[in-house]
Amino acid sequence: MLISIHGLHRVYQVGDQEVRALDGVDLEIEQNEYVAIMGPSGSGKSTLMNILGCLDTPTQGSYLLKDHEIARMTDDELARIRNQEIGFVFQTFNLLARADALHNVELPLVYGGVKHEERRVRAREALTLVGLGDRMKHKPNELSGGQRQRVAIARALVNRPSIILADEPTGNLDSRTGEEIMMAFERIWTQGNTVILVTHEPDIAEHARRIVRMKDGRVESDLPNAHPRSALAAGAPA
Amino acid sequence: MNLRESVGIALGGVRANKLRSFLTLLGTIIGVASVIAVMSFVEGLNRFVTDKLLNAGANVFQIDKYGFITSQEEFEQAEKRPDVTLDDAQALREGVTHAALVVGEAEGNVSIRYRAHVMKGVSIHGRGPGYDAVDDIQIAQGRHLTDIDDRERRAVCVLGPEVSDEIFANVDPLGREVRVGEEDFEVVGVTEPKGKVFGVSQDRFVSVPVHAFQKYFMQRGSFTIAVKSIDQSSLPLAEQEARNIMRGRRHQRPGQPDAFGLTTSDTWLQLYHTLTGGIFVVTIGVAAISLLVGGIVIMNIMLVSVTERTREIGIRKAMGARRRDILSQFLVESTTLSLAGGVIGIALGGSLALLVGAVSPLPASLSLPAVVLGLVMSTGVGVFFGSYPAVRAARLDPIEALRYE
């Protein structure tokens, strides 16, 4: 089992009020699954994503990632797990504005202690993989939205993490570009990666092979997607 | 982690906004520059003092009427003392067993003339035999004044090169008669040039045998006796002997203060150290204030930078940067920034010192310790004032930081 979550609670203290963002979540995800986590705002899906991404720790409960207990880890241990096991793709891309595409993709390798030459080689590979082999020296403001998100995907992939964690990855893109990005995820998944999508858009969630619906801090439903929308089958070639 | 990247980011920031960087670094620049400039001056002075004032009279002390006077009252007291005479010098020569040389000296001002060439305000030195060893004077042409010159009160003189050049332009001075004051003296030698001390020429003098000086130029007045001990270790012994002899000749009882002055190079060195110590204290004060202000400005800029780059910090943390990675990144940045200020300050202070050294008689030399101190100071400012912003950056919560607009 890749991810094994049991009895997860996350309580925030806002003023003198307790907010129970997660209220007893159980979830298991296997290697090479393609899962969408859905739910309206306030359902707890963002909190769940933060904990899955090791950016946050639960108040109570257990989160085993590859049999490592994440819930009791220190900040530095979490940083290491984020570096080695998680590849983030954000709605707002979150690229370093002053660095070119190549350097942005190198970033996880920098913190992973990978040597300079090897960093270069692997970052080039990752960028070529997402079709940006000719845009390596461009800075984010010289790239289109879709290209920026593909840089972010290359960055998420470059350290060969256990999970690709995408938070509303098409939220800032027009639908055609969004479809391209979904195609990229599908390809990543077919190559053996585990992809977790967090979204409130049913159209996007439809691409996944399994859909987890959140409500009021709990898992409302967890079902396989009987009729996935395959971006690869429907769309243009890569 | 990646030092080069952090330094690059910092230098990029400095370059991208030159005016802001300059203003940010102004405090550091002024602080470092003032320390460098003053250290260069003091260093130059030190070298100068050791070279010219102390080495010239190694193992030498002086006995005269006044000694080391620092106030009007002391001067009035010293006025009442008996004059120091050449007989005192003779007594010391006979009695101080640890002395290598005892030289009686006196000084005055005269006009000096050769045919139509007149030179006014020339120092005249009456010198006892052995003066050349005590004052480290080298002869360029001719000979020194000798024992026999003095004993026979010969009207002979040795000229400083400036005097010789001016009144004997294109003429060989040796063997010629010059008019010193009202008397004719034969020139027997010319000394090597010694250059200037604080803009005062050391080569504008005429030396005559001290007994001749007494005979022609000094109806009354007090001499100075220079005593050179055999070596460094016998200097205090020679001092003690000389003091006893002088007190005996003045019939002083135990407990009475000396009725003469005895000054060693230590006396001058102490005065010199008091002086430069004062300069140092003031400089350190100025530098400390500039560096404090400079450091606060750097801290402010770094806090702004941390706020501006909150999202970047969030991204880096999400990609696996640990606290210490973020901490070191911002520390390297603040240190690079202040070090840039330090380098500019060193260049500024150094060139100021060299410029002043070149156009004025004040000596100055840029020393390695000053440069190192400048670098250490500016690094210290960067690390110290950069640590609070860096800690703030390192402690940012990654989720909050990623959400920051």
What does this structure look like?
- The complex is a heterodimer of chains A (238) and B (405).
- Chain A has 238 residues and is α/β, with parallel strands linked by helices.
- Chain A has one domain (3-234): Rossmann fold (3-Layer(aba) Sandwich), CATH 3.40.50.
- Chain A has helices at 45-52, 75-85, 101-111, 116-129, 145-157, 175-190, 202-205, 231-234; strands at residues 3-14, 17-29, 34-38, 60-65, 68-69, 86-89, 163-167, 194-199, 210-215, 218-224.
- The longest helix of chain A is centred in the C-terminal third of the chain and has 16 residues, at 175-190.
- The radius of gyration of chain A is 18 Å and the shape is globular.
- The two termini of chain A are 31 Å apart.
- In chain A, 47% of the residues are buried.
- Chain B is built from 14 helices and twelve strands.
- In chain B, helix 1 (3-16) packs across helix 2, helix 1 crosses helix 12 (323-359) and helix 10 runs parallel beside helix 13 (368-395).
- The A-B interface holds A 50, 53, 55-56, 75-76, 79-80, 82-84, 88, 90, 94-98, 107-108, 110-112, 155 and B 1-2, 5, 9, 12, 311-312, 314-325, 398-399, 402.
Oligomeric state of the chains present here: heterodimer
CATH superfamily of chain A: P-loop containing nucleotide triphosphate hydrolases
Low-confidence runs of chain B:
none
Percent of residues in beta strands of chain A: 25-35%
The end-to-end distance of chain B, rounded to whole angstroms, is 27 Å
How much strand content do the residues of chain B show? Answer: 15-25%
How many independent structural domains of chain A? 1
The whole-angstrom Rg of chain B is 32 Å
The helix/strand order of chain B is: HHEHHEEHEHEHEEEEEHEHEHHHHH
CATH topological fold name of chain A: Rossmann fold
Q: What summary fits the major beta sheet of chain B?
A: 6 strands, mixed, barrel
- Largest interface (C-beta under 8 Å): A-B, 24 and 22 residues
Q: Quickly count the helices of chain B.
A: 14
Read across the widest sheet of chain B, the strand sequence of neighbours is 2-3-10-5-7-6
Q: Biggest sheet of chain A, strands in spatial order? A: 6-7-8-3-9-10
- The succession of helices and strands of chain A, N to C, reads EEEHEEHEHHHEHEHEEH
What ranges of chain A have pLDDT less than 50 throughout 5 or more consecutive residues? none
